[in-house]
Amino acid sequence: MHIIRRRGWEIPEHLVTPEAIAMNRRSLIKGVGAAGLLLAGGRAAMANDPAPTDNLHPYARNAAYTVERELTPERITSRYNNFYEFGTTKNIWEEAQALKTRPWTIKVDGLVEQPFEIGIDDLITAMPREERIYRLRCVEAWGMTVPWSGFPMKAFLDRAKPLGSAKYIRIETFVDPRIAPGQRRIWYPWPYVEGLTIAEAANELAFLVTGIYGKPLPKQYGAPIRLALPWKYGFKSIKSIKRISFTQERPKSFWEVLQAAEYGFWANVNPEVAHPRWSQATEEVLGEGRRIPTQLFNGYGAYVADLYKGLEKERLWA
Ligand SMILES: Nc1nc2c(c(=O)[nH]1)N[C@H]1C(S)=C(S)[C@@H](COP(=O)(O)O)O[C@H]1N2
Ligand SMILES: [Mo]
Q1: Ligand 1: residues whose CB is within 6 Å?
Q2: Could you tell me the distance, in angstroms and rounded to a whole number, from the CA of residue 43 to the centre of ligand 1?
Q3: Are 64 and 4 in contact (CB under 8 A)?
Q4: CB 253 within 8 A of CB 193
Q5: pLDDT tens across 239-276, in order?
Q6: What is the sign of the dihedral through the CA atoms of 309, 246, 82 and 30?
Q7: How many angstroms does the Cα of residue 1 sit away from the middle of ligand 2?
Q8: Tens digits of residue pLDDT in 141-188
Protein backbone atom coordinates (compact mmCIF):
# COMPACT_ATOMS: atom_id res chain seq x y z
CA MET A 1 0.00 0.00 0.00
CA HIS A 2 1.27 3.45 -0.81
CA ILE A 3 1.02 6.25 1.65
CA ILE A 4 -0.02 9.27 -0.35
CA ARG A 5 1.36 12.52 0.93
CA ARG A 6 0.91 15.68 -1.05
CA ARG A 7 3.57 18.37 -0.82
CA GLY A 8 3.24 22.01 -1.75
CA TRP A 9 4.67 21.60 -5.23
CA GLU A 10 2.48 18.68 -6.21
CA ILE A 11 -0.74 18.95 -8.15
CA PRO A 12 -3.32 16.29 -8.93
CA GLU A 13 -2.18 13.76 -11.49
CA HIS A 14 -4.93 14.65 -13.98
CA LEU A 15 -3.42 18.12 -14.37
CA VAL A 16 -0.16 16.72 -15.73
CA THR A 17 -0.51 17.23 -19.44
CA PRO A 18 -0.16 13.95 -21.30
CA GLU A 19 2.70 13.88 -23.75
CA ALA A 20 0.40 13.63 -26.76
CA ILE A 21 -1.52 16.79 -25.90
CA ALA A 22 1.67 18.62 -25.08
CA MET A 23 3.05 17.75 -28.51
CA ASN A 24 -0.08 18.92 -30.38
CA ARG A 25 0.16 22.25 -28.70
CA ARG A 26 3.48 23.08 -30.24
CA SER A 27 4.16 23.02 -33.92
CA LEU A 28 7.86 23.74 -33.48
CA ILE A 29 10.05 22.00 -30.96
CA LYS A 30 13.37 23.68 -30.36
CA GLY A 31 16.39 21.45 -30.70
CA VAL A 32 14.74 18.92 -33.00
CA GLY A 33 14.94 19.84 -36.65
CA ALA A 34 13.30 18.13 -39.60
CA ALA A 35 15.81 15.27 -39.53
CA GLY A 36 15.06 14.60 -35.87
CA LEU A 37 11.33 14.52 -36.54
CA LEU A 38 11.84 12.02 -39.34
CA LEU A 39 14.03 9.83 -37.16
CA ALA A 40 11.42 9.93 -34.42
CA GLY A 41 9.18 7.90 -36.71
CA GLY A 42 11.84 5.23 -37.18
CA ARG A 43 11.05 3.27 -34.05
CA ALA A 44 12.22 -0.01 -35.58
CA ALA A 45 15.82 1.13 -35.19
CA MET A 46 15.26 1.36 -31.45
CA ALA A 47 14.07 -2.18 -30.76
CA ASN A 48 14.93 -3.54 -27.31
CA ASP A 49 16.19 -7.06 -26.66
CA PRO A 50 13.07 -9.10 -25.88
CA ALA A 51 12.69 -9.96 -22.20
CA PRO A 52 10.28 -12.11 -20.17
CA THR A 53 9.37 -9.07 -18.06
CA ASP A 54 8.40 -6.87 -21.03
CA ASN A 55 4.72 -7.67 -20.59
CA LEU A 56 4.75 -6.36 -16.99
CA HIS A 57 4.59 -2.87 -18.51
CA PRO A 58 2.94 -0.49 -17.95
CA TYR A 59 3.56 -0.47 -14.21
CA ALA A 60 0.78 1.11 -12.11
CA ARG A 61 1.33 4.82 -11.56
CA ASN A 62 1.97 5.93 -7.99
CA ALA A 63 0.16 9.27 -7.83
CA ALA A 64 2.20 10.35 -4.79
CA TYR A 65 5.11 11.14 -7.10
CA THR A 66 4.05 13.68 -9.63
CA VAL A 67 5.24 17.07 -10.77
CA GLU A 68 3.68 20.41 -11.70
CA ARG A 69 5.45 20.50 -15.07
CA GLU A 70 4.35 18.92 -18.33
CA LEU A 71 5.94 15.62 -19.31
CA THR A 72 8.83 16.01 -21.72
CA PRO A 73 7.88 14.15 -24.91
CA GLU A 74 9.58 10.85 -25.67
CA ARG A 75 10.81 12.05 -29.04
CA ILE A 76 12.80 14.74 -27.23
CA THR A 77 14.22 12.72 -24.33
CA SER A 78 15.07 9.69 -26.49
CA ARG A 79 17.23 11.82 -28.80
CA TYR A 80 19.13 13.92 -26.25
CA ASN A 81 21.11 11.71 -23.90
CA ASN A 82 24.26 11.68 -21.81
CA PHE A 83 25.83 8.22 -22.07
CA TYR A 84 29.60 8.68 -22.36
CA GLU A 85 30.14 4.98 -23.01
CA PHE A 86 28.69 5.65 -26.47
CA GLY A 87 30.17 9.10 -27.15
CA THR A 88 30.44 12.58 -25.72
CA THR A 89 27.63 14.21 -27.73
CA LYS A 90 23.92 14.18 -26.91
CA ASN A 91 23.23 12.29 -30.13
CA ILE A 92 24.29 8.76 -29.16
CA TRP A 93 20.91 7.00 -29.21
CA GLU A 94 21.82 5.04 -32.33
CA GLU A 95 25.24 3.95 -31.02
CA ALA A 96 23.60 2.85 -27.78
CA GLN A 97 21.50 0.29 -29.66
CA ALA A 98 24.66 -1.89 -29.76
CA LEU A 99 24.25 -2.53 -26.03
CA LYS A 100 23.06 -6.08 -25.42
CA THR A 101 20.65 -5.96 -22.48
CA ARG A 102 19.77 -9.70 -22.25
CA PRO A 103 21.05 -11.84 -20.68
CA TRP A 104 22.00 -9.37 -17.92
CA THR A 105 23.01 -10.07 -14.34
CA ILE A 106 23.76 -7.75 -11.45
CA LYS A 107 26.44 -8.62 -8.94
CA VAL A 108 25.77 -7.64 -5.32
CA ASP A 109 28.83 -7.80 -3.07
CA GLY A 110 30.88 -6.17 -0.32
CA LEU A 111 29.40 -5.75 3.16
CA VAL A 112 26.26 -7.87 2.75
CA GLU A 113 25.08 -10.97 4.60
CA GLN A 114 25.69 -13.08 1.48
CA PRO A 115 27.06 -11.80 -1.84
CA PHE A 116 24.97 -12.87 -4.85
CA GLU A 117 24.41 -12.40 -8.53
CA ILE A 118 20.87 -12.03 -9.84
CA GLY A 119 19.35 -12.06 -13.32
CA ILE A 120 17.65 -8.77 -14.19
CA ASP A 121 14.29 -10.43 -14.91
CA ASP A 122 14.34 -12.34 -11.60
CA LEU A 123 15.01 -9.05 -9.84
CA ILE A 124 12.26 -7.14 -11.69
CA THR A 125 9.76 -9.93 -11.00
CA ALA A 126 10.54 -9.90 -7.27
CA MET A 127 10.35 -6.13 -6.76
CA PRO A 128 7.32 -3.87 -6.06
CA ARG A 129 6.92 -2.13 -9.42
CA GLU A 130 5.37 1.28 -10.04
CA GLU A 131 5.53 4.36 -12.24
CA ARG A 132 6.59 7.76 -10.91
CA ILE A 133 6.77 11.14 -12.60
CA TYR A 134 10.09 12.76 -11.68
CA ARG A 135 12.10 15.76 -12.71
CA LEU A 136 15.69 15.27 -13.82
CA ARG A 137 18.14 18.18 -13.62
CA CYS A 138 21.42 17.79 -15.48
CA VAL A 139 24.42 19.68 -14.10
CA GLU A 140 24.66 21.23 -17.60
CA ALA A 141 21.59 23.34 -16.71
CA TRP A 142 18.84 21.57 -18.62
CA GLY A 143 15.95 19.65 -17.16
CA MET A 144 13.19 17.26 -18.13
CA THR A 145 10.11 15.62 -16.61
CA VAL A 146 9.58 11.93 -17.32
CA PRO A 147 7.50 8.97 -16.15
CA TRP A 148 9.99 6.36 -14.93
CA SER A 149 8.91 2.75 -14.33
CA GLY A 150 10.83 0.85 -11.70
CA PHE A 151 11.00 0.04 -8.01
CA PRO A 152 12.26 1.78 -4.88
CA MET A 153 15.97 1.31 -4.13
CA LYS A 154 14.79 0.57 -0.56
CA ALA A 155 13.16 -2.66 -1.78
CA PHE A 156 16.47 -3.66 -3.35
CA LEU A 157 18.31 -2.88 -0.06
CA ASP A 158 15.92 -5.17 1.79
CA ARG A 159 16.79 -7.92 -0.69
CA ALA A 160 20.56 -7.24 -0.51
CA LYS A 161 20.70 -7.28 3.32
CA PRO A 162 23.69 -5.00 3.98
CA LEU A 163 25.64 -5.49 7.20
CA GLY A 164 25.47 -2.81 9.90
CA SER A 165 29.06 -1.85 9.02
CA ALA A 166 28.09 -0.79 5.47
CA LYS A 167 28.02 3.00 5.09
CA TYR A 168 28.00 3.53 1.33
CA ILE A 169 26.83 1.96 -1.89
CA ARG A 170 29.13 1.87 -4.89
CA ILE A 171 27.39 1.32 -8.24
CA GLU A 172 29.11 0.34 -11.48
CA THR A 173 28.09 0.40 -15.15
CA PHE A 174 29.00 -2.38 -17.63
CA VAL A 175 32.39 -2.41 -19.35
CA ASP A 176 32.57 -3.62 -22.96
CA PRO A 177 34.77 -1.52 -25.24
CA ARG A 178 33.86 -3.75 -28.21
CA ILE A 179 30.35 -2.31 -28.30
CA ALA A 180 30.90 0.97 -26.41
CA PRO A 181 33.23 3.21 -28.45
CA GLY A 182 33.58 5.70 -25.57
CA GLN A 183 35.26 2.98 -23.52
CA ARG A 184 38.04 2.81 -26.09
CA ARG A 185 38.98 6.31 -24.95
CA ILE A 186 41.34 5.07 -22.31
CA TRP A 187 41.83 8.43 -20.59
CA TYR A 188 38.40 8.05 -19.00
CA PRO A 189 38.35 6.11 -15.70
CA TRP A 190 35.96 3.31 -16.82
CA PRO A 191 33.75 1.83 -15.57
CA TYR A 192 31.33 4.67 -14.83
CA VAL A 193 30.91 4.58 -11.05
CA GLU A 194 28.55 6.38 -8.71
CA GLY A 195 27.99 6.27 -4.98
CA LEU A 196 25.47 7.07 -2.27
CA THR A 197 25.23 6.80 1.47
CA ILE A 198 23.01 3.97 2.68
CA ALA A 199 20.65 6.60 4.12
CA GLU A 200 20.33 8.26 0.69
CA ALA A 201 19.76 4.92 -1.00
CA ALA A 202 17.05 4.10 1.54
CA ASN A 203 15.27 7.42 0.97
CA GLU A 204 11.87 6.88 -0.61
CA LEU A 205 12.82 8.92 -3.70
CA ALA A 206 15.79 6.74 -4.74
CA PHE A 207 14.36 4.70 -7.61
CA LEU A 208 15.77 1.91 -9.78
CA VAL A 209 14.42 2.35 -13.29
CA THR A 210 13.54 -0.41 -15.76
CA GLY A 211 11.14 1.49 -18.01
CA ILE A 212 9.95 4.87 -19.25
CA TYR A 213 6.69 6.12 -20.85
CA GLY A 214 5.01 2.89 -19.78
CA LYS A 215 7.41 0.68 -21.75
CA PRO A 216 10.67 -1.23 -21.20
CA LEU A 217 13.61 1.19 -20.99
CA PRO A 218 15.16 1.94 -24.41
CA LYS A 219 18.90 1.42 -24.45
CA GLN A 220 20.02 5.05 -24.64
CA TYR A 221 18.36 5.75 -21.25
CA GLY A 222 20.56 3.11 -19.60
CA ALA A 223 18.76 -0.21 -20.10
CA PRO A 224 18.12 -2.62 -18.60
CA ILE A 225 18.38 -0.85 -15.24
CA ARG A 226 19.51 2.62 -14.15
CA LEU A 227 19.07 4.87 -11.17
CA ALA A 228 16.87 7.96 -10.77
CA LEU A 229 17.83 10.36 -7.95
CA PRO A 230 15.69 13.40 -8.72
CA TRP A 231 17.15 15.69 -6.03
CA LYS A 232 20.72 15.30 -7.31
CA TYR A 233 22.36 16.37 -10.56
CA GLY A 234 21.72 13.88 -13.34
CA PHE A 235 25.21 12.42 -13.42
CA LYS A 236 24.46 10.60 -10.15
CA SER A 237 21.67 8.67 -11.93
CA ILE A 238 23.97 5.95 -13.25
CA LYS A 239 22.91 3.87 -16.25
CA SER A 240 23.13 0.17 -17.22
CA ILE A 241 24.05 -1.09 -13.75
CA LYS A 242 26.11 -4.30 -13.48
CA ARG A 243 27.38 -4.24 -9.93
CA ILE A 244 26.30 -2.86 -6.56
CA SER A 245 28.79 -3.03 -3.68
CA PHE A 246 28.31 -2.11 -0.03
CA THR A 247 31.36 -0.41 1.48
CA GLN A 248 32.73 1.37 4.49
CA GLU A 249 34.74 3.82 2.38
CA ARG A 250 33.11 6.62 0.41
CA PRO A 251 33.30 5.58 -3.26
CA LYS A 252 34.92 7.90 -5.81
CA SER A 253 32.69 8.52 -8.79
CA PHE A 254 33.73 8.57 -12.46
CA TRP A 255 33.26 12.35 -12.57
CA GLU A 256 35.06 12.94 -9.30
CA VAL A 257 38.10 11.04 -10.58
CA LEU A 258 38.04 13.07 -13.81
CA GLN A 259 37.32 16.50 -12.38
CA ALA A 260 37.11 16.69 -8.59
CA ALA A 261 37.06 20.50 -8.66
CA GLU A 262 33.74 20.42 -10.52
CA TYR A 263 31.95 17.21 -9.51
CA GLY A 264 31.81 15.94 -5.95
CA PHE A 265 30.23 13.08 -4.05
CA TRP A 266 26.99 14.72 -2.88
CA ALA A 267 25.99 16.69 -5.99
CA ASN A 268 22.65 17.91 -4.64
CA VAL A 269 20.86 20.46 -6.83
CA ASN A 270 21.23 24.02 -5.55
CA PRO A 271 20.45 27.07 -7.71
CA GLU A 272 22.60 29.30 -5.49
CA VAL A 273 25.82 27.34 -5.85
CA ALA A 274 27.26 27.92 -9.31
CA HIS A 275 29.28 25.37 -11.21
CA PRO A 276 32.83 26.76 -11.57
CA ARG A 277 32.04 27.46 -15.25
CA TRP A 278 28.34 28.43 -15.29
CA SER A 279 25.37 29.46 -13.13
CA GLN A 280 22.92 26.88 -11.81
CA ALA A 281 20.19 29.46 -11.11
CA THR A 282 18.01 28.48 -14.07
CA GLU A 283 17.57 25.54 -16.41
CA GLU A 284 16.37 25.02 -19.97
CA VAL A 285 13.26 22.87 -20.14
CA LEU A 286 14.11 20.27 -22.82
CA GLY A 287 11.93 20.69 -25.87
CA GLU A 288 10.31 23.91 -24.67
CA GLY A 289 13.06 26.40 -25.48
CA ARG A 290 12.49 28.38 -22.28
CA ARG A 291 14.34 28.69 -19.01
CA ILE A 292 12.80 28.31 -15.55
CA PRO A 293 14.27 28.86 -12.10
CA THR A 294 16.01 25.83 -10.62
CA GLN A 295 14.80 24.79 -7.16
CA LEU A 296 16.80 23.72 -4.12
CA PHE A 297 17.08 19.90 -4.17
CA ASN A 298 15.33 20.20 -7.55
CA GLY A 299 12.08 20.77 -5.64
CA TYR A 300 12.37 17.65 -3.47
CA GLY A 301 13.61 19.24 -0.22
CA ALA A 302 10.63 17.98 1.80
CA TYR A 303 11.80 14.43 1.14
CA VAL A 304 15.56 14.78 1.45
CA ALA A 305 16.69 17.90 3.35
CA ASP A 306 16.87 15.95 6.62
CA LEU A 307 19.47 13.61 5.12
CA TYR A 308 21.99 16.45 5.21
CA LYS A 309 21.45 17.78 8.76
CA GLY A 310 24.81 17.94 10.49
CA LEU A 311 26.69 17.66 7.19
CA GLU A 312 26.80 21.41 6.50
CA LYS A 313 30.61 21.36 6.44
CA GLU A 314 30.58 18.92 3.50
CA ARG A 315 30.47 20.14 -0.08
CA LEU A 316 26.83 19.13 -0.47
CA TRP A 317 26.27 20.81 -3.85
CA ALA A 318 28.00 19.45 -7.00
N1 LIG B 1 26.79 4.96 -17.23
C2 LIG B 1 26.46 6.23 -17.40
N3 LIG B 1 25.43 6.75 -16.68
C4 LIG B 1 25.07 8.04 -16.84
C5 LIG B 1 25.78 8.89 -17.73
C6 LIG B 1 26.84 8.32 -18.48
O7 LIG B 1 27.50 8.99 -19.30
N8 LIG B 1 27.14 6.99 -18.31
N9 LIG B 1 25.41 10.23 -17.84
C10 LIG B 1 24.70 10.82 -16.68
C11 LIG B 1 24.19 12.14 -16.94
S12 LIG B 1 25.34 13.39 -16.97
C13 LIG B 1 22.85 12.41 -17.05
S14 LIG B 1 22.27 14.00 -17.17
C15 LIG B 1 21.86 11.31 -17.14
C16 LIG B 1 21.09 11.46 -18.44
O17 LIG B 1 20.05 10.51 -18.53
P18 LIG B 1 19.17 10.45 -19.85
O19 LIG B 1 20.10 10.33 -21.04
O20 LIG B 1 18.28 9.28 -19.68
O21 LIG B 1 18.42 11.75 -19.91
O22 LIG B 1 22.47 10.03 -17.09
C23 LIG B 1 23.57 9.91 -16.20
N24 LIG B 1 24.00 8.52 -16.12
MO1 LIG C 1 24.11 15.35 -16.73
Answers
A1: 77, 81-85, 138, 173, 192, 221-222, 234-235, 237-240
A2: 21
A3: yes
A4: yes
A5: 999 999 999 999 999 999 999 999 999 999 999 999 99
A6: negative
A7: 33
A8: 999 999 999 999 999 999 999 999 999 999 999 999 999 999 999 999
